[in-house]
């Protein structure tokens, strides 16, 4: 698994990058790593992180017993960070997961890895529950939300195929691994994510994560 | 303003429809109505509600001092409920708001009514913060989230134009008022909503609303 922890700490109006913000006394990334380790005790993991924060993480890794996982310095874009993290893995099926998604369920992890093992890849999604409008030029129009899914992580792949896909040049629309894999000619397999598996990016998300993690700790 | 309170109480696994669930000791719909009354003390409102729940509401209306607002029995679809609620209004500019959106800000309400007064309509939206995929036939593909917006309420309109739009026959893709108004040939004006203005539909949403309403009571 590659854990993407690229946050540098601007959006939340806090000096600390999001992945290090404490929720119930424990940094978000620690919640996330514990959850993944609960899924599979000896899973292979690399953590991609901005170089400025690696020393900070090394302290935490000692404190929370995550020294076993290699840390790679993140690149200019998420794309380059994932690529660097991938190169250190050797498992046949690998996942890429956001450090700020501590609420991924064991069932979602299992579904993603199982499906990717058999079908080549798996991307967890949940339904869109609000009305959507699409902007085009100066206009906008209603869109049928049933035709859309919200994408989560972990996104799982056969490692060799994903590494091959990452040989393409970086393009701005590569916002996740599915978009990279798709641009390399593969069809994406969707599986059910879990609704609580939110990406913690706003103060509102933090508040929700705090409560969900109290009910269901990593 | 038409308040749409059509919930009959299945999705949340509670007998009580969502709009009546207590948050910090007060039914959701009461939070919502208080917020709107704080925006404008003598705003005209009608409440569209399933006939089975009108007696229940009448008790609450007495308790919380909302007897002044007319209640109309909701129809088979949201479309028919809004139509019935609209017919009792006389203001030049009217809004339609979900009873389960207690966190609409005064600023959002102001923006919607002001813009609709000048431009004929206004629909509050917020950006999509997660990756989207679009399903087509057996396939799916990445979509640029920048091209999409999530739609909220209140959706505001010149009353006569909206009433005219509601003369169309009901169609299944009428999921909100903007879609009805658009199908009648109008271009929709988008304005900024506020991110906390969530539609409370899941236990997760309830938890979040509880905390946001503690910080910022109606």
Question: What features would you describe in this structure?
Answer:
2 copies of one chain form a homodimer. The first copy, chain A, has one domain: Spore Coat Polysaccharide Biosynthesis Protein SpsA, Chain A (Alpha-Beta Complex), CATH 3.90.550.10. Chain A has 7 helices and 12 strands. With 218 residues, the first copy, chain A, is α/β, with parallel strands linked by helices. In chain A, the strands form 3 sheets. In chain A, strands 1, 4, 5, 6, 7, 10, 11 and 12 form an 8-stranded mixed β-sheet that branches. Chain A has a two-stranded antiparallel ribbon with strand order 2-3. Chain A has a two-stranded antiparallel ribbon with strand order 8-9. The interface between A and B is large, with 44 and 43 residues.
Segments of chain A where pLDDT lies below 50 for 5+ residues? Answer: none
Specify the structural class of chain A: alpha/beta
- Give a quick account of the main beta sheet of chain A: strands, pairing sense, barrel closure: 8 strands, mixed
Total of helices of chain A? 7
Spatial gap, N to C terminus of chain A: 17 Å
- Given the C-alpha coordinates, what overall shape of chain A results? globular
List the helices and strands and how they pair.
The structure is a homodimer.
Chain A: E1 2-5, E2 22-23, E3 26-27, H1 28-39, E4 46-49, H2 54-64, E5 70-73, H3 78-86, E6 93-98, H4 106-119, E7 121-127, E8 132-136, E9 139-143, E10 148-151, E11 155-158, H5 159-165, H6 177-183, E12 190-192, H7 203-215
Parallel strand pairs in A: 1-4, 1-6, 4-5, 7-12
Antiparallel strand pairs in A: 2-3, 6-11, 7-10, 7-11, 8-9
């Amino acid at each position: 698994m590659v854990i993407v922890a690229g946050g540098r700490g601007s959006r939340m109006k806090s000096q600390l990058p999001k992945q290090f913000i404490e929720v119930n006394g424990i940094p978000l990334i620690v919640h996330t790593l514990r959850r993944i380790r609960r899924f599979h005790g000896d899973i292979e993991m690399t953590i991609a992180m901005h170089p400025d924060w690696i020393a900070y993480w090394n302290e935490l890794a000692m404190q929370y017993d995550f020294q076993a996982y290699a840390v790679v310095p993140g690149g200019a874009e998420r794309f380059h960070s994932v690529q660097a993290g991938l190169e250190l893995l050797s498992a046949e099926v690998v996942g890429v997961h956001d450090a700020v998604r501590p609420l991924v369920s064991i069932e979602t992890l299992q579904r993603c890895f199982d499906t990717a093992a058999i079908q080549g890849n798996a991307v967890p999604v949940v339904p869109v529950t609000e009305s959507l409008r699409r902007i085009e030029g100066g206009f906008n129009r209603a869109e049928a939300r049933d035709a859309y899914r919200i994408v989560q992580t972990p996104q799982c792949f056969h490692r060799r195929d994903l590494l091959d896909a990452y040989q393409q040049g970086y393009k701005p629309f590569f916002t996740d691994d599915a978009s990279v894999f798709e641009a390399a000619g593969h069809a994406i397999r969707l599986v059910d994510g879990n609704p609580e598996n939110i990406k913690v990016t706003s103060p509102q998300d933090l508040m929700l994560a705090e409560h969900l993690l109290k009910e269901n700790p990593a």
